Amino acid sequence: MKKKLEQYSISDHGISLKDIDPDVFSISDSLISNGYQAFVVGGCIRDILLGKKPKDFDIATDASPQEICKLFSRAKIIGRRFKIVHVYISEEKYFEVTTFRSDVKKRSNDKKFKTTKGMIKRDNSFGSISQDAFRRDFTINSLYLDLDSGILHDYVNGLEDIKAKKLRLIKKPSISYQEDPVRMLRAIRFESKLNLTPTTECKESINKMSHLINNVSPYRLFDEILKIAHSGKGEEGYKKLRNHNLFEFLFPFTNKILEKNEIYNQFFILALRNTDLRINDGLHVNPSFIYAVFLWPYFLELEKKYSDRNTSNIEEVFNQTLKMQSKYIAIPDFFQQTIFTIWSLQSSFLNLNRRNIQYLTNFSKFRAAYDFFHIRSLVDEDLKRYADEWFEIQKNIKSKNLNKNKNYDKRRKRK
Ligand code: ATP
Ligand code: MG
What we know:
The chain is α+β, with helices and mostly antiparallel strands. It has a domain at 1-164: 2-Layer Sandwich (Beta Polymerase, domain 2), CATH 3.30.460.10. The chain has 20 helices and 10 strands.
C-alpha cells in the first residue's frame, strides 16, 4: 500500500477535541514546546470517530525513549521487544508514549529484527511519522491527530475506511500476519466489537495462516484471548476463532474433544453469552472464569484417564491440564488458583446437606464456582435440579442478610 498523505482539518474529520483527555494535551504540549512532534494515535482516534468512548490514549512522537524520559519527571521505559514510555500523571494514571518506528523493509535481513519465521521479534529502530504509519496493523488504527493544529494525518486512507466501516490491513495479509500473528486475533476482535466488515483478503487469509498463532509467546496470547472474551462480543469472537481455525491451535486438547462432543460447544457459547451480559451491564468478570470454561473438557478427560488407572488426584489432574496447555497459552499462577477452586468445588454442588451448604457458601470464590455450575446445568439435565436448589439457597441467604441489616439499622436508630 503506497498512499499519499491526506490532511484533514477539524471541520473535515469532525473529532471534538473535548473527547481527548486534558492530560494528553499537556503531554503533547511539553513535547511540542521542546521541539518534538507529538500526535494522538491508534485505537483512541478510531474509537472517537466510531462514536465510542476510548479506553486509553496513545501518543506517538519523534523523541526517543530516553529523550521522553528526560522531559517528564515521572516516566518509565517498559518492554524489550517494543520499547514504550509510560508517562505518569499520578500514581495510577499514565499514558503510553511511543517513538515512531522505522521502515521494516530496510531491516528485513537484520537477524535481530526478524525470526526465521518472518516474525518481528524486536523493533526499536526509530523513524518518521510516515514510516510509523505503515508499521501499524489496520488502516483504521493509523490516524494521527496533531492537537496543536487539530489536523488529522492519514497516510493509509484510514478515515475513508472508518466511514465505510471497513477493516483493512495496511500490508498484504501474507506479510502482516506473518510479521505478527496476533493481528489475526485483533482482526477478529475489531470485526466483532466495532461491527466492521473485514476485506475479503483480511478475513480469508486467517484460515490459511492460523497455524502461525503458535509462534506467539504463550504469555501474550493469555491477554489477547481475554481481550476477545471480555470485549462484550465474546460469543461472536469465540465462534470466529473456531470458524477461522484458530481455536484448534490455541486450545488443541480441548478442540479434539469439542469435535467429538457438541455439548461442550454449547457450554462455551452459553458461558460467553453470560460474560457478554455481565460486561455490557458493567459487572466484574474474573479472567480465570473463561479459562476454566475452555479447559474444562480437557480436565474432565484427564480426570477420567487418571481414575481409570485408579490414581485420580484432583491436584495432579489440574497440574497436568495446565502444564499441557501452557505450551500454547500461559495462565499466570494467580489465575490458576481460581481455576483450581472453581473446578474442585464442582462436585460439592451435588451435595445439599446443611453442613456442605455452609462450607460451600463461605468460599470466597463460591459465586464464580456456582456460575460455572449453573452454566453446566444448562447443557446437562442431570445437574438442573441441583442448580435450582442452589439458586434458592442463595436467595434465602440474601434475604436473611437483608433482614439482618434492617434489624441492625432499627437498633441503631433506637439508640
Ligand atoms: P484496544 O486498545 O481497543 O485494544 P488499540 O488499537 O488501541 O485497541 P493497542 O494495543 O492499545 O490497541 O495499540 C495501540 C495502537 O498500536 C494500535 O491502534 C495500532 O496502531 C498499534 N498496534 C497495536 N498492536 C499492533 C500490532 N500487533 N501490529 C501493529 N500495530 C499494532
Ligand atoms: Mg488502545
